[in-house]
Design goal:
The chain is mostly helical. The protein has one domain (5-139, 158-358). It has 16 helices and four strands. It has helices spanning 13-29, 37-58, 65-85, 87-92, 99-106, 108-111, 116-129, 161-170, 172-190, 199-225, 230-253, 276-283, 292-297, 304-309, 318-331, 342-358, and strands at residues 5-6, 271-272, 285-287, 337-339. It has a two-stranded parallel sheet with strand order 1-2. It has a two-stranded parallel sheet with strand order 3-4. α8 packs across α16. The chain starts with a strand and ends in a 6-residue tail after the last helix.
Length: 364
């Protein structure tokens, strides 16, 4: 399926006004749209939460099961923090105005076992361009046992997905660091990505090398140095990923798979109505806007509307920009979706999963 185009190629009055007002905000404050001291402190914290526990494990400091599980648990929090609060901005190019800094901070994703090259295509290109468009947004192109769009095929087992989806959310990063990157890299090559001379072969080699590095320090060395049964070490390693997978999947999913959001499909000319900015507003929601600490910990992803409209701006600025976005949206009659709390967002996500498990596809 060829990716669709938007009916309005140029920016709307809304998007032009928003761009002007956001630029005026940074000019009036005399600040950069990139990372600040808070972002740097967060980067140090999240990297430490991941690296230090694994270092202690590899130094043989975990001699009992509870110590091992605790260290891997902390490592899982750090891994989630890296994914949501460091590599996410870096791969979007919003961590620093220096491309080299962005590239190396983006490698933190490789450090935790995934591929920054695959993520750049999946997230930056396919998800950010076509959110909630079945067949184009790779975040909702789920395995057959999960249904994230009313336009996707429905199976009987989807009636229970609001119960079992959480298990698959939790094991998502285990799949990620084992097979998913390879599967998607091969699929993206067939879609026309990674088509420069020897680019696919080079990226596959880099992918294998980084995964060898990751598995060496995250699992192989612990199996050698930790004086516990191998099955305990493997179980503790898996528990680290359960923490990371649950946190990352939940945060990302509640921003788009919600009852209040739209799941538009292109017409017979493969065209989606409106322009890109209008599409982002219709398919994205914020949540927990008053949770300052919560927002800091999850990389500002509770301000998904701002992130989708302004992906080239570091997330530390989203809270202040949200007022500008909300006021501009109201002025131009645009929707501005927001869930008051994270709990309400989760509850509505559950309701959406349940609804998707009952309804037949809108289109065939």
């Amino acid at each position: 399926m060829k990716n669709p185009k938007f009916a309005k190629r140029g920016g709307s009055d809304f998007s032009r006004a928003l761009k002007t007002r956001v630029n005026q905000y940074f000019d009036s404050k005399g600040i950069s749209k990139y990372a600040n001291k808070s972002m740097i402190a967060k980067s140090v914290l999240m990297l430490s939460l991941f690296v230090v526990p694994l270092l202690l494990i590899n130094l043989g400091m975990a001699s009992s099961p509870w110590q091992l599980f605790l260290l891997y648990f902390i490592g899982g929090l750090g891994m989630a923090g890296i994914g949501m609060g460091i590599m996410h901005d870096a791969i979007h190019g919003s961590y620093s105005r220096n491309k080299t800094v962005n590239r190396y901070m983006g490698y933190t994703m490789n450090l935790v076992g995934a591929s920054s090259a695959v993520w750049r295509i999946q997230h930056n290109v396919l998800h950010h361009t076509y959110p909630n468009i079945t067949g184009s947004d790779d975040d909702i192109n789920a395995p057959f046992f999960l249904r994230f769009s009313p336009n996707a095929k429905r199976y009987v087992l989807h009636r229970f997905q609001f119960i079992y989806a959480w298990f698959f959310y939790s094991i998502s990063t285990i799949s990620w660091v084992t097979t998913k990157d390879f599967v998607r890299m091969n699929r993206y090559r067939k879609m026309g990505f990674l088509n420069k001379r020897n680019e696919f072969q080079r990226e596959i080699s880099i992918l294998i090398l980084w995964k060898l590095v990751y598995y060496t320090f995250a699992l192989v060395l612990p199996l050698i140095v930790v004086p516990l049964a191998p099955w305990i070490i493997i179980l503790a390693f898996i528990s680290m990923h359960l923490v990371t997978g649950f946190l990352i999947s939940t945060i990302f999913q509640v921003a788009h798979i919600m009852p209040s959001l739209e799941f538009p499909m292109p017409d017979e000319n493969n065209t989606v109505s409106g322009d890109w900015a209008m599409h982002q507003m219709a398919t994205t929601t914020n949540f927990a806007p008053r949770g300052t600490l919560f927002s800091w910990l999850i990389g500002g992803l509770n301000y998904q509307v701002e992130h989708h409209l302004l992906p080239n701006i570091c997330h530390v600025h989203y809270k202040n920009l949200s007022r500008i976005v909300a006021e501009t949206a109201k002025e131009f009659g645009m929707p501005y979706h927001c869930q008051k709390t994270f709990c309400s967002a989760i509850w509505n996500h559950i309701k959406m999963l349940r609804s998707l498990g009952k309804t037949v596809p809108v289109s065939t």
